[in-house]
Design a protein that fits this description.
Elements (H helix, E strand, L loop, with lengths): L1 H4 L7 E3 L3 H14 L3 E3 L14 E3 L4 H14 L4 E7 L2 H12 L7 E8 L7 H9 L4 E5 L2 H13 L5 E4 L6 H8 L7 E4 L8 H14 L10 H18 L5 H9 L8 E3 L2 E3 L13 E6 L2 E4 L2
Parallel strand pairs: 1-2, 2-3, 4-5, 4-6, 6-7, 7-8
Antiparallel strand pairs: 8-11, 9-10, 11-12
Helix pairs in contact: 3-4, 6-7
């Protein structure tokens, strides 16, 4: 990031899948006064004291509320949490736990894991003994696959609700198969084929990347990255072509009237640099596909 930020001809950045990367890069990006449009990193603290960060996605505090509310709607009274031990996983787990009382359920067990974890059976054995109605997975799809497969081995009957790190239809279905059926996953954006802008984008995407193959939908973050590129393009076309003027352009996007209308809707930012009005939704796996759950 230091090497990238030092390039004088680089005037804007579209970046950051992981919140941990965005947080680690924050001092460098701010010192370089490099406007950065964030298409994925969702930890709420990413945009704290970061005037050159502009985030298009909803944040984990909203995701935690959406997941907790949905667990309540499923009638959950007793839950457990499995989380990946980084800023994303811990932040999401903390948010769910903080709102548990308001949602009418208790959290009977909270277990963490890291990049080296492949065997989740010890954690799942402890969780199974607590008889939770719902198990929250706060991590990424590769580990979620292992959790779902090993939970099925152990005969766990709890409903699974997962964070957006698991929202990858192709990987999840390929890895977990029937064990993914009925799993609810938070998504910052779900492509709607009845939306003309979405439909146009999807047709172009399938033509470019999946001709001759299955017409699988791209990830949510594809949509936000695409809109981030559209925002930068709009800035260029209005003669904002250096770091200072692009920052000025982005800070002026502070209302629906001054926002950018893209495939995810109208993007405009609050004073902190977060897109206004962005909400997570729940998708559920039915017949090996993600469909909207709410």
């Amino acid at each position: 990031m230091q090497a990238v930020a030092s390039k004088s001809n680089l005037v804007a950045l579209i970046a950051f899948y992981h919140s941990s990367t965005a947080l680690a890069s924050k001092p460098i990006v701010q010192e370089a006064k490099l406007p950065a449009l964030i298409y994925s990193a969702s930890n709420p603290t990413v945009t704290d004291n970061a005037p050159f960060y502009f985030r298009l996605v909803p944040t984990d505090d909203n995701q935690a509320v959406v997941l907790g509310d949905y667990a309540k709607s499923l009638g959950a009274k007793r839950t457990a949490i499995l989380y990946y031990a980084d800023e994303y996983g811990k932040g999401l787990a903390d948010g769910i736990e903080a709102h548990a009382g308001a949602n009418g359920f208790s959290v009977a067990a909270v277990k963490s894991y890291d990049a080296t974890t492949t065997d989740f059976r010890p954690e799942l054995t402890i969780i199974k003994a607590q008889k939770p109605d719902v198990i929250f997975i706060c991590g990424f799809v590769d580990k979620s696959i292992a959790i779902l497969n090993q939970a099925a081995e152990q005969g766990l009957k709890s409903k699974f609700l997962a964070g957006d790190g698991t929202f990858n239809e192709e990987q999840l279905i390929a890895g977990a198969g029937k064990n993914a059926e009925g799993v609810y996953v938070a998504a910052p954006y779900v492509f709607d084929e009845s939306n003309p802008k979405n439909e146009s984008f999807l047709e172009a995407y399938w033509t470019a990347y999946q001709s001759g193959g299955a017409r699988k939908k791209p990830s949510s973050w594809t949509a936000f990255a695409y809109d981030a590129a559209g925002i930068v393009d709009t800035a260029f076309r209005s003669n904002h072509r250096d770091r200072a003027s692009i920052e000025e352009f982005l800070k002026a996007m502070k209302s629906p009237q001054t926002g950018y209308e893209g495939i995810t809707g109208v993007t405009y930012f609050n004073q902190k640099g977060d897109a206004v009005g962005r909400q997570f939704r729940l998708a559920v796996v039915k017949n090996q596909r993600f469909v909207v759950a709410q």
